[in-house]
């Protein structure tokens, strides 16, 4: 009888070594990039969509490089304090790597970077746990956008539906989601079926560094926030 792949043992020491080697490679790659690019930006993101971000990254590939992943690893690469930073002032960049953030290292002009980030916006279907930005309510009556084959699927999502002469019909008003409240798995599926996109993938610049200058973009932040981070 052939061995089950599920029962294959993996050496824990090997996985630990691989993880350590990956972190070291990221640190080395980031340190090398920091020497080769003119400017470094910290940016935050909301409603990340990997495919859309990959397209954006490819667009900037000739002049730039992105780093996303463990904030702690990136902090180690840049230096966490003035005493261990790899270039003057980079510890300030390091301290702003918190939460959903990443790094852009680039040779593009400041104005071009700011324009690209300000314009970047991609709408998509919201996922489970996302906060609804509006109330969606379906009124009692026929749901002409759905075929009769979809009636069992809609019922599975908790919708009070039935077939009436081959037409999917809502037997009572139904609230799909409430504004300001997190989406349940069922709500997220129904919104997708309705074609309603509630999530917007955005990128926000937090700071800019180059050898001559350091600038904070977020109005809520100032130099004291960086020093105390």
Percent helix range: 25-40%
Q: Residue ranges: pLDDT <50 for 5 or more in a row?
A: none
Q: What gyration radius follows from the Cα positions, in whole Å?
A: 24 Å
Q: Based on helices, strands and strand pairing, what is the structural class?
A: alpha+beta
Q: How far apart, in Å, are the first and last alpha carbons?
A: 58 Å
| Net shape | elongated
Mean pLDDT: 90
Number of helix segments?
8
H and E order: HEHEHHEHEEEHEEEHEEH
- What is the subunit arrangement here? single chain
Q: What is the count of β-strands?
A: 11
Biggest pleated sheet: 6 strands, antiparallel
Strand percentage lies at 15-25%
What key attributes describe this structure?
229 residues; alpha+beta; six-stranded antiparallel beta sheet; 36% helix
Summary, kept brief:
36% of the residues lie in helices and 24% in strands. With 229 residues, the chain is an alpha+beta fold. The longest helix is centred in the N-terminal third of the chain and has 25 residues.
Overview of this protein structure:
By secondary structure, the chain is of the alpha+beta class. It has helices spanning 12-36, 50-60, 71-78, 90-95, 110-119, 151-156, 185-194, 223-228; strands at residues 39-46, 64-67, 101-106, 121-124, 136-138, 141-142, 161-164, 167-170, 174-177, 199-210, 213-216. The strands form 3 sheets. Strands 1, 2, 3, 4, 10 and 11 form a 6-stranded antiparallel sheet that branches. β10 and β11 (213-216) form a beta hairpin. α1 crosses α3. It is elongated and about 75 Å long. The model has no long low-confidence stretch (mean pLDDT 90).
